[in-house]
UniProtKB/TrEMBL annotation:
The keyword NADP does not apply. Belongs to the GbsR family. PANTHER family: HTH-TYPE TRANSCRIPTIONAL REGULATOR MJ1563-RELATED (PTHR38465). Keywords: DNA-binding, Transcription, Transcription regulation. Signal peptide: none annotated. GO terms for molecular function: DNA binding. This is HTH-type transcriptional regulator. The keyword Coiled coil does not apply.
Amino acid sequence: METTNYEPSLDKRLQHIRETFIHELSTNLHLYGMNESTGRLYGALLFEENALTLDEMSDHLGMSKTSMSTSIRQLTEANMARKVWQKGVRKDLYTSEDDWYSSFIAIFTKQWRTAIERNRKASVEMEQELRSLLEKAPHLTDQIKIDLIKLQHANGYYDWIDDFVTILESGEIFKTLPKK
């Protein structure tokens, strides 16, 4: 039977390695529209063996319970954390969601859909204004027609982004670009 020598210094090394990774992860979550403290919470949940309550998260990270509540809500909306049930525990428990692909899709498709909606609305308004101006300012006809062509090109791009988002949401993307 093999015996293992317990060395506290190795535990500290493991903790340091995890903390380094969590730091890098948290500094890059701005790409997901999240702040660094939310990233630290995700990292803490990722390497925690057991689900945590808001109080435990707050104690673990030295942050307010309100801040933890806001961060955990962002993480659950992004499919990066989920609420779990445990017999005998009355408080909400949370754990990390390990499917980063799902998280990416949830976050970015939501942002892209919002951007597409805003851009399409602006496009409709611009087209209406250009057509109105065309009637009132015939001397600008050539310039307005060029702007309408550019607007049509932009609308084609919004349609393409919309199709791309649909492919992401449906999971079809993984037929072309499989998960690793």
